[in-house]
Design brief:
15% strand, single chain, 3-stranded antiparallel β-sheet, globular, alpha+beta, 5 helices, Arc Repressor Mutant, subunit A, 3 strands
Length: 93
């Protein structure tokens, strides 16, 4: 259990956010996040929506059904989350 989970609990949204943080600068698919986190595809789809609405995550459509996701590194809130995550890791909470 890492610091984010210790503070906020192990939720699907924290799990998805951590996965995207670990792959910052990369794009991934819902199924890729689901495979890596052990969450169902529908759970990932559900919890990624608030992250999209907050512009923490960006979505790129490739065709009609394929979507990729990545952290929005141009968003100040995303950068604050990354800084917070890195600071927590240094503190070994």
């Amino acid at each position: 259990m890492d610091a984010l989970e210790k503070i906020f609990g192990k939720t699907a949204q924290i799990t998805v956010l951590k996965n995207l943080i670990l792959h910052k600068g990369e794009s991934t698919y819902l199924s890729g996040i689901a495979d890596e986190t052990g969450l169902s595809h529908s759970s990932v789809a559900r919890v990624i929506e608030p992250l999209l609405k907050a512009d923490i995550v960006t979505e790129k459509r490739l065709g009609k059904q394929i979507r990729t996701f990545s952290l929005n590194l141009d968003n100040e809130l995303t950068l604050l989350i990354l800084e917070f995550y890195e600071d927590l890791a240094k503190m070994k909470v």
